[in-house]
From TrEMBL:
InterPro entries to which the protein is assigned, alphabetical: QueC, Rossmann-like_a/b/a_fold
Pathway the protein contributes to: Purine metabolism; 7-cyano-7-deazaguanine biosynthesis
Protein name from the UniProt record: 7-cyano-7-deazaguanine synthase
Record's keyword terms, sorted: ATP-binding, Ligase, Metal-binding, Nucleotide-binding, Queuosine biosynthesis, Zinc
Cofactor list: Zn(2+)
Function of the protein: Catalyzes the ATP-dependent conversion of 7-carboxy-7-deazaguanine (CDG) to 7-cyano-7-deazaguanine (preQ(0)).
Amino acid sequence: MNKPQNFIPTTAKPNNNQNAVVLLSGGLDSVTCLYWAKANFNHVTAVSFDYGQRHNSELNAAKNIAKIASVDHRVIGIDLAQLGGSALTDQNLHIPNADKTADFSNHQNNANIPITYVPARNTIFLSYALAVAEVTKANTIVIGVNAVDYSGYPDCRPEYIDAFAKMANLATKAGVMGNHLTIATPLLHLSKAEIIKLGVSLGVDYGLTVSCYQANRDGLACGKCDSCYLRQQGFLQAEIDDPTCYQ
């Protein structure tokens, strides 16, 4: 397994007196990050967003998983649907079926940003997480961005995360006072199969997660979108039974 940026071995002892904030969507990657953080930090606060997404099943999954994981959980309301520009917030935009001939392994320079990109979403989410980190005295924000099996989103690139971390330490009271903040990206260089294997080793129940772009109100996945396809391929390559419930 490749060693990702800011990796802390899951066998390491928890960072005594160090807290973390985890961005928790309820999907496969973010839940893996939640359990990774629980294994490595003294106290974990999960932050989720009700941002006007097409369905609430992923958010409901996040609430349920945070409760099971026994972590503090904050749900913040932001209406990004007012801005439009994404099929994840605009019911009038169509989410296409996955292009199963596409190469998802190298989107570093992809100029064709998919319609599921939500404008500035990670910047907005990380800004709120930064505020929560200051309030909870956390020195780390954990986000499940991935530079291997992702769909070409510009705010998932390593250079973006590095830039935000630099800004965060310039813009906060904690940073000015010398309490350095880190943006941890434990999944950054892992394939979907490697992420699943990591999560299983940490005790994640992936049957509780919702990753589909157009899941129904019961959390049943469409099995056709990019997110479903990457998830299916991940379980197949990890040689682990896929617990996802499909429509």
